[in-house]
Design goal:
Strand content: 5-15%
Shape: elongated
Helix content: 40-55%
Largest sheet: 6 strands, mixed
Structural class: alpha/beta
Radius of gyration: 38 Å
Distance between the termini: 87 Å
Oligomer: single chain
Number of helices: 37
Length: 864
């Protein structure tokens, strides 16, 4: 940076500080000497964007050092020039086409938008990670908003090639046309009419052998072919096209002829004159045949067919086959003169690919991950893997994706991320065209194609079309799939290698969460606290590295510097919950538990069972994995419990208390959303919500479970059959559930007996006795509520009520006291609320008893 009193620096620093899109690294701006010291010491820079504001020579050295040492960072150079810059080239962004501007200068807002887009969509090569802006240094200006930044043209394409046809091709084309005119002289009226003499001359020409080509044409063609075959000419776009698509000599010559009208409009007039039709200004098979081989040869058709195979030609079908206009695909024309951006922006390619890089690589820092990263680097650069596939399988597909991104950054090789789900969504003709264009783009950019099958049931036909299009790919292709066997069935035999990556262990996930705590700046008092917190989060939310990246970003967006460590932990927990199951609220209700186990008043033996449920859930990993009991359980790794008892006895409250003890949420199944009238939809909904509960680590609560887990009946009609299918599916899915599921019911005898065998715990919740009822009465009134000292708790406990009814009575009494403007809740309000509750429940005998007590209490008050 320049000196602190620089007004341009001050204005830019203020804009970046006030912007919601940017945050300063270390919360401050760096001096150029600090950055130089950091680069000299090879210390890492972990921010995604470096903005350099200093002199031109200083910027050159700084930007080169940052780009070389930090492959994932974007560098924005802001050069200060006191010269009038109005004569500079017009603003353009080479690799971000939709940011192209007609204006010559950008204001601060446009500058920040351009910087943000570059960070989000930059490539992996140096030229795609560097942007240069020029500012007019005007110290007399008092308005910072008047500052304008000029976007300077970036360096050449990342391949450092010339974006034009080589002079050898232009010379050969011109000599070809001159030679044709010498061999087949045309009349002045050609293109307007055909005289009898001209027709006779054409007939005579058909009888004569093809004239020899002139020496000038032969020399130009030999020079062109020699140029196309030289390795030193690899910076030439036409040479790259021929080499990477393995085009024959005739195909390349035909391509140059077809490309000529797009290079210079003069060739359109010449072609129209040759074809005796000024509406046909582009090449055709007949024209190529006439220019290259003489009339009647099939070599031109073979050359055109090779170009068509790679979708290099856009064909006009309004004429006969030999007369169809042949135009070079606009994408290829743009690629020849602009660069790889044209291939990435091809509609067919964009419709089947993922533009954004896969995330989560910052968490893969273990020794095993480093070994796999090195192996992936070797795979990407190994020239011996041409026309072969590498299958990356296993349950941790996000881990494979992140490793590939790291390996691509290390080797500076691009990835063409093909989504099989998007590819399958295309119709059949578009799918075939997209497969070829994807293979073409991968070849021309020298990128590695990665077919992502992780989020889609593999469509064998769609995958086979991709494999066929990549059959002769000069580099390896990669396929990410959770099931290697299904994927390999579509790959050619003997031309694939498989690697497997299992689910991440609890230890790895704990280490990942330690990194998350460090990134978010969550500092706890003791290191053991951070370890326990990381382990608890890793157990409750088994997120992949991609999910961790999203949760970290989501939590970071919700945090402010003023938040305490506990508030930051809550923000992180909420973010993990949202990322783990983003659609879960569509089928279930999330309940944040507030009760504690000590507040659940049940008989002592039931309380022991509730604590045992917590212990079984908390120590699952130790018993099943470390002690080996999991090897005996093909299914049933989860914990399933049934809470049975009359209404209001604390079943739902106990479920929430268990979740609170475990530090997770409760997901209560919403029957109105789960059950569907359409066949098979109920099973899909159940599978979705149970899977979301597994990913989010929540307690799954089936309230009134007999509605779903009822007994299967004898099949008398189709309704019975499909109802039994739902129950049978639920049996299977619950058995495979790996979390904690709690079922509550008022009548356990309504449940199918097959469920009872799969339950690890069955807890009966009886109606509370007098001693428990007195404790419930006292507990249902908060400590902060004013209560009269003369309340007869023993008398209230005399009535046989459940805990749920007692809570209703105390709440009603509190509202009565507030309405009567009492300073405390007394026995009078409690008795009145109790009497109203008995009346609501239709318990006339109990109501009369309460009424008598109320009258006696009233007489006692009057006597007093």
């Amino acid at each position: 940076m320049r000196s602190r009193d620089d007004w341009i620096f001050t204005a830019l620093h203020a804009r970046l500080t006030a912007s919601q899109r940017f945050a300063l690294y270390d919360g401050r701006a760096w001096l150029d000497t600090e950055l130089a010291d950091t680069l000299a010491a090879s210390r890492p820079i972990t921010c995604p964007l470096v903005v350099l504001l200093c002199s031109g020579e200083r910027n050159d050295a700084m930007s080169a050092a940052v780009l070389a040492g930090h492959p994932g960072i974007v560098v924005v150079r802001i050069d200060v020039d006191k010269r009038e810059s109005s004569g500079a080239d017009s603003i353009h962004v080479d690799h971000v086409q939709h940011l192209q501007l007609d204006q010559r200068r950008l204001g601060f807002d446009r500058l920040l938008s351009a910087m943000q887009y570059l960070v989000e969509h930059h490539g992996i090569r140096d030229a795609e990670r560097l942007a240069r802006f020029l500012v007019l240094d005007d110290p007399s200006s008092s308005d910072a908003d008047a500052v304008r930044f000029l976007r300077m043209p970036s360096r050449k394409d990342a391949r450092d090639r010339d974006g034009k046809l080589p002079p050898q091709a232009i010379r050969w084309l011109n000599e070809l046309l001159r030679d044709y005119f010498a061999r087949y002289p045309l009349t002045e009226d050609n293109g307007l009419s055909l005289s009898r003499a001209r027709a006779t001359a054409l007939i005579d020409a058909l009888d004569r052998p093809v004239p020899e080509r002139g020496s000038e044409l032969r020399g130009a063609e030999q020079e062109l072919l020699q140029h196309l075959s030289q390795e030193s000419a690899a910076r030439d776009a036409l040479v790259l096209l021929r080499q990477r698509l393995a085009l024959g000599e005739d195909a390349v010559l035909a391509l140059i002829i077809c490309l000529a009208p797009d290079v210079d409009l003069s060739y359109q007039l010449i072609f129209g004159h040759i074809q005796d039709d000024m509406t046909r200004r582009f090449a055709s098979s007949a024209l190529i045949d006439a220019l290259l081989f003489g009339h009647g040869s099939d070599t031109a058709a073979n050359a055109v067919a090779q170009l068509r195979d790679w979708r290099l030609l856009a064909i006009d079908g309004q004429h006969a086959a030999a007369e169809q206009s042949l135009r070079i695909d606009p994408v290829i024309v743009q690629w020849l003169f602009v660069g790889d951006t044209a291939l990435r922006d091809d509609h067919a390619v964009k419709s089947a690919t993922i533009a954004d890089a896969w995330t989560g690589g910052e968490f893969l820092c273990g020794s095993a991950d480093r070994e796999l990263r090195d192996e992936m680097c070797a795979r990407l650069v190994d020239a011996g893997l041409a026309r072969s596939w590498v299958v990356l399988s296993g349950s941790d597909c996000d881990g494979w994706r992140a490793l590939l991104e790291l390996a691509a950054a290390d080797t500076r090789i691009g990835l063409l991320r093909v989504s099989l789900a998007r590819f399958v969504a295309l119709d059949m003709p578009a799918r075939e065209d997209a497969a070829i264009r994807l293979a073409r783009a991968a070849r021309l950019m020298d990128w590695r194609m990665v077919v992502d099958c992780a989020d889609e049931v593999i469509d064998a036909a769609a995958l086979s079309s991709l494999v066929d299009a990549c059959a002769e790919q000069p580099a390896l292709c990669l396929l990410v799939s959770p099931d290697a066997r299904v994927a390999m069935s579509s790959l050619p035999r003997g031309r694939w290698r498989a690697h497997s990556r299992g689910p991440s262990s609890l230890l790895s996930r704990t280490m990942h969460f330690r990194i998350v705590l460090s990134i978010l700046g969550i500092k706890l008092e003791l290191p053991t606290f951070a370890k326990h917190l990381s382990e608890r989060l890793a157990t409750a939310y088994p997120l992949s590295v991609c999910g961790l990246h999203a949760a970290t970003a989501l939590a970071g967006a919700a945090m402010t510097p003023a938040l305490s460590a506990d508030e930051r932990v809550r923000a992180l927990t909420s973010a993990c919950r949202s990322v783990a199951a983003p659609d879960i609220l569509r089928l279930a209700r999330r309940i944040e538990p507030t009760y504690k186990l000590t507040e659940v008043l049940v008989p002592a033996d039931r309380a022991v069972l509730l604590e045992e449920i917590v212990a079984n859930t908390r120590h699952t990993r130790v018993v099943l994995d470390e002690w080996g009991f999991g090897n005996q359980l093909q299914y049933g790794r989860g914990v399933a419990a049934l809470f049975a008892g009359p209404s209001g006895t604390g079943k739902t409250m106990a479920a929430q208390a268990i979740a609170c003890e475990l530090g997770v949420d409760v997901l209560a199944i919403d029957l109105s959303r789960i059950v569907s009238k359409y066949i098979g939809e109920t099973e899909k909904h159940l599978d979705s919500v149970i899977g979301d509960a597994e990913r989010s680590g929540a307690v799954l609560l089936f309230d009134e479970a007999d509605a779903l887990f009822g007994k299967r009946s004898e099949v008398k009609d189709a309704h019975d059959r499909y109802a039994n299918i739902e129950v049978a599916y639920l049996l299977q899915r619950m058995e495979a559930f790996s979390g904690l599921a709690i079922l509550t019911t008022n009548n356990r005898h309504n449940l199918d007996q097959a469920f009872l065998r799969r339950l690890r715990f069955i807890v009966d919740f009886p109606r509370p006795d007098a001693s428990l009822r007195e404790r419930i009465w006292r507990q249902c009134i908060p400590e902060s509520a004013p209560v009269a000292k003369k309340v007869d708790w023993h008398m209230l406990a005399h009535f046989d009520l459940s805990g749920g009814v007692i809570r209703q009575v105390t709440l009603r009494a509190a509202f009565l006291a507030a309405r009567q403007e009492k300073t405390e809740i007394g026995m009078e309000q409690l008795i009145e609320a109790l009497r109203s509750e008995f009346n609501k429940l239709g318990m006339q005998a109990a109501e009369r008893e309460v009424a008598e007590y109320q009258q006696a209490l009233s007489r006692q008050d009057k006597a007093a």
